[in-house]
Write a structure and sequence with these properties.
GO terms for molecular function: DNA binding. The protein is mostly helical. 42% of the residues lie in helices and 3% in strands. The longest helix has 26 residues.
Length: 120
């Protein structure tokens, strides 16, 4: 004999909610494994879709930073920041942080003020 019963709506809602929560937890774990990061939204910049290069220690990564991120450095405005990005595009990745002194407008004084925040 086959017996069919009616599932109450509250049982269905609990089951759905529990399944959703399990799926959401698994998805978050998967995303963490992928180390998914959101792009920076520095609209108007040539590098507006570059991921943020400003890590939790406040360092600026020379080979990834956007114009807006370079402007966070002491003594670096929009023109100098753009010059750094253009130098990187023309000459390739920086090999060491001292190389930033080759950028027009970035002299020893600006370098000394910021060297603790610079990283590759």
């Amino acid at each position: 004999m086959l017996c069919l019963g009616v599932i109450s709506p509250s049982v269905f809602a609990q089951s759905f909610d529990q399944n959703f929560q399990e799926w959401k937890a698994k998805q978050q774990m998967y995303d963490q494994k992928l180390n998914v990061s959101k792009p920076s939204h520095s609209y108007g910049s040539k590098n507006s879709y570059t991921k943020s290069s400003n890590d939790s220690t406040g360092q600026i990564h020379l080979n990834q930073a956007t114009v807006n991120e370079f402007q966070q450095l002491k003594g670096v405005g929009e023109k100098k920041a753009q010059a750094i990005v253009e130098y990187r595009q023309k000459n390739g990745s920086f090999k060491n942080i001292d190389e930033i002194k080759n950028v027009k407008g970035i002299g020893p004084a600006i370098f000394e003020k910021n060297k603790s925040r610079l990283a590759l």
